[in-house]
Amino acid sequence: MAYHSGYGAHGSKHRARAAPDPPPLFDDTSGGYSSQPGGYPAPGADVAFNVNHLIGDPMANMAMAYGSSIASHGKDMVHKELHRFVSVNKLKYFFAVDTAYVAKKLGLLVFPYTHQHWEVQYSRDVPLPPRQDLNAPDLYIPTMAFITYVLLAGMALGIQKRFSPEVLGLCASTALVWVVMEVLALLLGVYLATVRSDLSTFHLLAYSGYKYVGVILSVLTGLLFGSDGYYVALAWTSSALMYFIVRSLRTAALGPDSMGGPAPRQRLQLYLTLGAAAFQPLMIYWLTFHLVR
User: Fold this and answer.
1) How many whole angstroms separate alpha carbon 243 and alpha carbon 261?
2) What angle do CA 273, 276, 279 make, to 5 degrees?
3) In this model, does residue 148 exceed pLDDT 90?
4) Helix 263-288 crosses helix 211-247 at what angle (to 10 degrees)?
């Protein structure tokens, strides 16, 4: 009996011994350290230690505060210099458009002959935004038309197997340079003609940029119908744009008061208006003739 009881006790000891737990699939990193061999801390532990050390270091806090003050001061200086050269409020006025205005303005640029009233509307001596006045100039259509022209030029060159990034960049930069030169020439003409009006650089940039609507129509017509269709579209868009520029500058931009001055000044204003209008077909042809073959 003693033997059997001893055997049973010995056997129960072997059965009571628990099997080892299986190794975990992932290490527990919630405490910031992982159970890596050698007792080394996890990579994130050094970062946490360094951050805590920097936070507790007075010199580091002073350096961070000084850097933040410099960044804030630099931001204020940039905004101040930007407002000196570009009025954000005036720029917002030229982009205050909606879908209805854009559709009507595009129709006016292509078919201006049926339009009757060209005067810019005012409310309390402040011009109405473009979305409320069809005659008000805007910069949304010129900007989008310029971007569309660059993309359309790339497509036209690609169809003709002449596309390359260098040619596309040259096309965009050339168009931009010509617009800047045209605006500068108009500003000089307005200064020499001593025109008394609210005609600003944004106005001239808007009227100068409307030519890209005619550029797009000419290139699309040329790609669809060949050179004959291109020249027909070129003639129509050029004449429509010339009529639009003459009526807009004489009525909306220069204003009726500026036309009541002495005869020499009136002649200068008329020459300036006709010169700006006559320059548009030349620019449309220069920007499009190499895209249609």
Assistant:
1) 23
2) 145
3) yes
4) 160
